[in-house]
Amino acid sequence: MATVFTPAAIRRLEALFGVRATSSAGSSYRFEIASGDGRGAPVRRLALEIYGDVRIGKKRGNLVSVYTEAAHLQLHFCSGFVLSEDLGEATFVGEYRGKLSGLIVEKTAGCTLFANVDREILSGDFTQLSPEVMLSGVALSLTEPVLEAEKKSSRRRRTGSRRRGAAARP
Prior knowledge:
This protein has 170 residues and is an alpha+beta fold. It contains 3 helices and 9 strands; from the N terminus they run αβββββββββαα.
């Protein structure tokens, strides 16, 4: 799995969220995000934790966790992320066998999770989908460039392994 959470990537996330990440254990980062002024506007808080290249079961990968007052969400094997300045959010994505999971974190301390979404709906005709399904397709369609880059990188790694005489990964 490619290195996703480089120091430059963390700086880009800091700029989007408007907060500094605290770091511990090398590739672990925590962002504490809050919104609202406490004078009529509700105050929302969340903590975003990013763990680059950690052991997840028998494999290694990137783990993204969100803690709110009411929920704890995790995205295992995060393969990339996309920032949207216009929307004020970061979309973290992972893919397994054509199914996507995306965790969206907003700079206003909101978050959304889409899990087990068929990848093919990202590039399909959104008008043919029900509104409930369309929402996940539109939201995750922003991640298509990241997913394509990961797919090409995986192909290169497998092709390079075959050239060196090693067995290809299943």
